[in-house]
Predict the structure.
Amino acid sequence: MVKESLSLGGKACVPWFPKEGLSESLVDPALAHLAILQAEVRTQSRINTLDVSRGRVTALHSPDGVIPLTEEDTVILAVPAPVAESLLAPHLPGFQAPNAFESILNLHFRLDAAPQALGSFARARFMGLVGSIAEWVFLRGDILSVTVSAANRFAEQDPDDLARAIWHDVRRACDPVLKEPLPATPPHQRVVWEKRATFAATPEQNRLRPGSATQLVNLALAGDWTATGLPATLEGAMRSGVKAVHTLGLRRP
Ligand SMILES: Cc1cc2nc3c(=O)[nH]c(=O)nc-3n(C[C@H](O)[C@H](O)[C@H](O)COP(=O)(O)OP(=O)(O)OC[C@H]3O[C@@H](n4cnc5c(N)ncnc54)[C@H](O)[C@@H]3O)c2cc1C
């Protein structure tokens, strides 16, 4: 990650974030592309088990029924690590995947009115913080959203104390770049605590990340938790998908 960002200079370090939401930026265009290819997309249809015969996946089982696979069919298994582990365990004894996870905490503070940002904060509408609990602050209208990654360390903390400490960070960082200072007490907030947001970025967990190829000739793995060389990120997930396509020989690198 350092090689692809810090060591390439400032331009390679500019963060990207969606203009509206991830759906508009990534999901809708992907679905539109799949529609052009006349692909069938099934949502709310979990794969429960795989049938395997002679080193090939021959069918997928979901509550809606069985999806039989022909000799030409290939599978890219792009499910979370624990799901991949449970689907593959009966067929690939000893298969390992990351099994320790970190949470991400998001707090969305709703203000009485949209604050007026100044200078670069007005242009970027987000900032990164160092030396504080809050790591990223995003300004969207009257909402100030805060992200805290690797948040397991705060799991035992009293939620009100945590919100107060984070609001203190936000005021310290934002007040100098807002026309009016923020209120001293934390405004009403929505807390979203995603418990298994990412695999734990430790050397032990990194060693458990498999490559895309498996011993099943028509099945490749994808997902941010595979051996992408990146932490659990959208970029890692995307690259893993491309790698899985190459592994199955569907397209050359
Ligand atoms: C709160 C939060 C904030 C984040 N912020 C950022 C960020 O700012 N930048 C960034 O780069 N990354 C961020 N990430 C990480 C990013 O979201 C992930 O790295 C990325 O979504 C991983 O993509 P994936 O395709 O590997 O897995 P997922 O997005 O988890 O997709 C796996 C899919 O498999 C499906 N599935 C599960 N079980 C089954 C089954 N049995 N059968 C069929 N389907 C199944 C799931 O429904 C899901 O759709 C964030 C994550 C969280 C939780």
Observations:
- The beta strands are 49-53, 56-62, 65-68, 75-77, 101-110, 126-128, 136-140, 143-148, 189-199, 219-221.
